[in-house]
């Protein structure tokens, strides 16, 4: 998958050499990606494939941990836990899970990159339609082929 990504990225950069300056490396995972020209040359960027969100969550958890270690935080956490203990059981929301979830940040990033590559503005609706079409074409059934029943190679009348 990564090799395909880099192959596609190289072919894009061969066709559109002006995007070379927009190439950035993720500070977390090291993957190369195309960024907006205003971010060209920055070394502190996270890739749009999950590192930005993971780093944001990690920092938020660290801030929360630091806060709840203070006296004020310990008092507040105790109140929250007491309130949670006396509340009723959580209600489950029954609903149908979607086949796939579109990440808006990734779609916006792809919208920008596709716009740079095609040299035109690409609407978010176009990107959603492209993503839906992509997932429709990429989903393969796990249950393909002929069903085979278990057949013993050397059937015996009495098992050992």
Q: How would you sum up this structure, described in words?
A:
With 160 residues, this protein is mainly α. The protein has three domains: 1-46, no CATH class; 50-84; 102-139, no CATH class. The protein has five helices and two strands. It has a two-stranded antiparallel ribbon with strand order 1-2. It is extended and about 60 Å long.
Broad structural category: mainly alpha
Mean pLDDT: 81
Sheet with the most strands? Answer: 2 strands, antiparallel
Fraction of residues in helix: 40-55%
List the total number of helices.
5
What is the domain total for the residues? 3
What Rg, in angstroms, do the CA atoms define?
25 Å
Q: What is the CA–CA distance across the termini? A: 47 Å
For the largest sheet, list the strands in their spatial order: 1-2
Can you count the beta strands? 2
Shape: extended
Low-confidence stretches: none
**What is the H/E string?**
HEEHHHH
**Which range does the strand content fall in?**
under 5%
How are the SSEs placed, and which strands pair?
Elements: H1 2-15, E1 23-25, E2 32-34, H2 51-68, H3 71-86, H4 104-118, H5 124-138
Antiparallel strand pairs: 1-2
Helix pairs in contact: 4-5
List keywords for this structure.
3 domains, 4% strand, two-stranded antiparallel sheet, mainly alpha, 2 strands, single chain, 160 residues
């Amino acid at each position: 998958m990564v090799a395909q990504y880099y192959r596609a990225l190289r072919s894009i950069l061969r066709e559109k050499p002006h995007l070379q300056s927009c190439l950035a490396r993720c500070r977390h995972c090291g993957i190369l990606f195309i960024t907006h020209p205003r971010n060209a040359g920055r070394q502190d960027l996270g890739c749009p494939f999950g590192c930005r969100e993971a780093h944001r969550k990690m920092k938020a958890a660290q801030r929360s941990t630091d806060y709840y270690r203070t006296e004020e935080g310990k008092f507040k956490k105790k109140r929250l836990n007491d309130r949670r203990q006396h509340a009723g059981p959580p209600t489950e929301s029954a609903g149908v899970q979607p086949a796939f979830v579109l990440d808006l940040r990734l779609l916006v990033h792809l919208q920008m990159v596709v716009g740079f590559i095609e040299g035109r503005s690409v609407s978010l609706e176009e990107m959603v339609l492209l993503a839906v079409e992509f997932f429709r074409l990429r989903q393969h059934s796990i249950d393909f082929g002929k069903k085979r029943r278990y057949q013993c190679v050397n059937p015996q009348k009495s098992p050992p």
